Amino acid sequence: xxxxxVSALAALGGSAIGALASIGTSxxxxxxxxxxxxxxxxxxxxxxxxxxxxxxxxxxxxxxPMSTIVAKEGTGDQSxxxxxxxxxxxxx
Length: 92
Fold this sequence. Notes:
This protein has one domain. Helix content is 86%, strand content 0%. The protein has three helices and no strands. 0% of the residues are buried.
């Protein structure tokens, strides 16, 4: 085999390896950015739901006397229904 062919094949092989490395790096970077974005969106959703839950509970129970709050805890009102979306999101 002539030395010209060896150097040409080495150049082509190096170019192919460089291209594969570039593609792999781009793929990993995109994957990491997508994971970070999903985590930020999940955090924002949880923050919104927790905020709504706290606001609902604060508005509902702050005006009631303590005896009414204790009596009402077992009735399954809206605050309890609000917990299900929280459990569903936190499971993922």
